């Protein structure tokens, strides 16, 4: 009977020669498939006498195993080589500068939040958060807006179905409930800002059903109206980058502050454009006041010992003023051309040392 050594050498050489997965598969079929060469030899075993058949069968099985092992090894090697080639072909130099024309943009809302956070952080504020879905109690009652109070109508509230335990829920109409949450969870002194989403059922040039506010809250034993004014004047001048920007406090009303004020900044309105600065005209940008003693008490703070101020500001509004964006609705249309025009290049993190925007 002819030896299998020659065949084995031939098959192993063919395995080594297979240049890719397809060639290897073709070889496997030709050697081990139903009509393959080794299978063919196996089929001839029946014509041998028992002794010879046993010996030949064992040798053929050994050959089959050797070839299968060689196939496996070759396949692993080919895969590793393919991966290495791909890694080489797709190599990128991560130290190269980014190409601005192919990178995304930071949305003006994100940029504005980063900027105002940098300014308030510099004054010692930290950032607090609350949920978009709020208890009716935190959004209204704890802020001295009891049920049936007319201020509830003014907010065009989105009401949600009651929670399982009967809690009345709303989409928060302002960031002021974060005041309540903060006073209930941390002991004074408190100095926080709370930027985030707010919701009111309203839609036109200057209103969208979702918009952003930033809340501010300072509570301690000594803070008074002078601190409120100093803090907000400083903020307005830093944010709009106008050193002598006039800032005016006008008496107003909010149920949760007493006294309350609205803040205007100086501007000029000329032929449809708006300029910020000392030009004699005024533009309202935020609401503020000294936190109402009832609000302190409802959140478990001793109003005979502690006092402080709060403010709330529309983020889209100050972004529109600073960056000359005329229509509020465009903020949320996700138009790439708009984003490219009004957006900011990533990695330019706003900070006071280098200027908020570059
Ligand atoms: N929550 C008020 C609003 O949405 C703004 C405000 C906040 C006013 C804090 C005073 C103090 O209009």
What would you note in describing this structure?
The chain is of the alpha+beta class and 358 residues long. It folds into two domains: 88 residues; 235 residues, BirA Bifunctional Protein, domain 2. It has twelve helices and eleven strands. Strands 1, 5, 6, 7, 8, 9, 10 and 11 form an eight-stranded mixed β-sheet that branches. The chain has a three-stranded antiparallel β-sheet with strand order 2-4-3. Strand 3 and strand 4 form a beta hairpin. Helix 2 runs antiparallel to helix 4 and helix 5 packs across helix 11. Bound molecules: phenylalanine.
Provide a quick synopsis of the model.
The chain has 358 residues and is an alpha+beta fold. It is built from 12 helices and 11 strands. It has 2 domains: 2-89; 108-342, Bira Bifunctional Protein, Domain 2 (BirA Bifunctional Protein, domain 2, 2-Layer Sandwich).
Write the SSE topology.
Blueprint: H1 5-17, H2 21-32, H3 37-43, H4 50-89, H5 108-122, E1 126-127, E2 133-135, H6 136-139, H7 150-154, E3 159-160, E4 169-171, H8 177-185, E5 190-199, E6 210-220, H9 225-240, E7 247-254, E8 257-270, E9 273-276, E10 281-291, H10 293-298, E11 307-314, H11 315-323, H12 336-342
Parallel strand pairs: 1-5
Antiparallel strand pairs: 2-4, 3-4, 5-6, 6-11, 7-8, 8-9, 8-10, 10-11
Helix pairs in contact: 1-4, 2-4, 5-11
The protein binds phenylalanine.
């Amino acid at each position: 009977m002819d030896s299998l050594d020659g065949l084995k050498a031939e098959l192993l050489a063919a395995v080594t020669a297979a240049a890719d997965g397809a060639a290897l598969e073709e070889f496997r079929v030709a050697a081990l498939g139903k009509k393959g060469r080794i299978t063919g030899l196996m089929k001839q075993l029946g014509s041998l006498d028992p002794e010879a058949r046993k010996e030949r069968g064992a040798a053929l099985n050994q050959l089959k195993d050797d070839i299968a092992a060689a196939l496996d090894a070759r396949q692993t090697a080919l895969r590793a080589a393919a991966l290495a080639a791909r890694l080489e072909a797709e190599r990128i130099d991560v130290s190269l500068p980014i190409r601005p024309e192919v990178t995304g943009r930071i949305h003006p809302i994100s940029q504005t939040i980063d900027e105002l956070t940098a300014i308030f952080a510099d004054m010692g504020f930290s950032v607090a958060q609350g949920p978009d879905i709020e208890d009716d109690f935190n959004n209204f009652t704890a802020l001295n807006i009891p049920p049936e109070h007319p201020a509830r109508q003014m907010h065009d509230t989105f009401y949600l179905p009651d929670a399982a335990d009967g809690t009345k829920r709303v989409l928060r109409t302002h960031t002021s409930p974060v005041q309540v949450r903060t006073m209930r969870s941390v002991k004074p002194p408190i100095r926080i800002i709370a930027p985030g989403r707010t919701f009111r059922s309203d839609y036109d040039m200057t209103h969208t059903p979702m918009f952003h506010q930033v809340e501010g809250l300072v509570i301690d034993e000594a803070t008074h109206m002078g601190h409120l004014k100093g803090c907000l004047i400083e903020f307005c001048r830093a944010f709009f980058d106008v050193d002598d920007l006039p800032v005016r406090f006008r008496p107003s009303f909010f149920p949760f502050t007493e006294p309350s004020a609205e803040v205007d900044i100086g501007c000029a309105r000329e032929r449809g454009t708006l300029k910020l600065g000392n030009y004699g005209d005024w533009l309202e940008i935020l609401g503020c006041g000294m936190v109402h003693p009832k609000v302190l008490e409802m959140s478990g703070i001793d109003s005979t010992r502690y006092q402080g101020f709060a403010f709330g500001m529309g983020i889209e509004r100050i972004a529109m003023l600073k960056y000359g964006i005329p229509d509020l609705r465009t903020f949320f249309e996700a138009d790439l051309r708009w984003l490219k025009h009004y957006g900011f290049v990533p990695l330019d993190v706003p900070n006071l040392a280098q200027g908020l925007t570059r």
